[in-house]
Design a protein that fits this description.
Layout (H helix, E strand, L loop, with lengths): L11 E7 L5 E7 L6 E7 L3 E3 L5 E3 L2 H9 L9 H16 L5 E3 H15 L1 H11 L5 H21 L10
Parallel strand pairs: 4-6
Antiparallel strand pairs: 1-2, 2-3, 4-5
Helix pairs in contact: 1-2, 2-3, 3-4
């Protein structure tokens, strides 16, 4: 790490702290040459491989914009969407991959969206999974109903039994 003051090619880490969201590390550094102190923020890069083959950095804003239309007219707030995007990022980062296919991000959206709002989930899934008939909707609705029935009998929230 080059010193921003004297451009010396080395520095010493004085203190390291993880950010509140756990996605970055703030390091306090000191230059052994001039004694100047400065901070760096380190994050693990995460890139998305799009269908076209293009690669771009992952952003939560893209997740939010991709889900917003499915949530239109539903009781879903911007704060809800921000939390959903954070959960999706956490799911994607847990794979340990530095590049992930856009399709995998779409799959990662389905679970948190289903928990947030089932109607928005059906809307999103119908586009994302390319529903072609009423039977596709009926199958998805039947799965939601079965999960509700299982949750009712077990006392667990719907959808929790398919985690892990």
């Amino acid at each position: 790490m080059h010193c921003p003051f004297c451009r010396h090619g080395d520095s010493r880490v004085i203190d390291s702290r993880t950010s509140d969201d756990g996605l970055s590390i703030r390091r306090r550094r000191q230059c052994p040459e001039c004694g100047g102190r400065f901070s760096t923020i380190e994050t693990a890069s995460l890139n998305v491989i799009k269908r076209s083959g293009a690669v771009e950095p992952f952003t939560r804003d893209k997740v939010i914009s991709g889900v917003r239309k499915a949530c239109q007219g539903r009781p879903v707030t911007d704060a809800d969407l921000a939390i959903l995007a954070q959960r999706v990022e956490e799911i994607v980062r847990q794979t340990g991959l530095s590049q992930i296919d856009a399709n995998e991000i779409g799959l990662a959206i389905l679970g948190p969206l289903r928990e947030l709002d089932e109607v928005a989930y059906l809307r999103y899934a119908s586009v994302y999974q390319a529903f072609e008939s009423l039977e596709d909707f009926e199958t998805s609705i039947a799965e939601l109903r079965a999960d509700h029935a299982r949750a009712h009998f077990s006392g667990a929230p719907a959808g929790d039994d398919d985690q892990d």
